[in-house]
Specification:
The protein has about 130 residues and is mainly alpha-helical. It has helices spanning about 5-90, 100-120. The protein folds into 2 domains: about 5-95; about 100-128. It starts with 6 loop residues before the first helix and ends in a 9-residue tail after the last helix.
Length: about 130
């Protein structure tokens, strides 16, 4: 059977086998590539799940820390209010008064007017 084959028949056979090998190799390669992509996709999905879990935990931990700070500040404010009330009960004449900038400016103006009156620079009325 082999001695009856011509060179053209052998060439056609080699080309057919090569074509089939290339076709199956390409299909296997594409399939391997697809399975690699599928594995990478599954790995990325797993990483995204872990990432979202970590972010949720960090967010919850941050909220807890913020709540602790707020409650600590609130406790300090409450304690300061209680101390101020106790002080005002002991010494009612002291009274806790918060000065604003406007109050401070008015106090300075009154002090200047008193000094001017004391030196005789102002009359009994207000200065214009």
């Amino acid at each position: 059977m082999l001695p009856q084959l011509t060179a053209v028949d052998v060439l056609v056979g080699v080309l057919a086998v090569g074509f089939l090998a290339a076709l199956f190799g390409w299909a296997g390669g594409a399939g391997a590539l697809r399975s690699c992509r599928a594995r990478l996709s599954a790995f990325e999905d797993t990483l995204e799940i872990f990432d979202s879990r970590i972010k949720r935990r960090e967010g919850a931990a941050g909220q807890v820390a913020t709540q602790r700070r707020k409650s600590a500040l609130q406790e300090r404010d409450d304690e300061a209010d209680k101390l101020a009330q106790a002080l005002s009960r002991r010494h009612p004449n002291l009274g806790v008064r918060v000065l604003t900038e406007q109050d401070a400016e008015e106090a300075q103006l009154l002090e200047l007017e008193r000094e001017a009156r004391a030196k005789g620079l102002m009359g009994k009325g207000k200065a214009s």
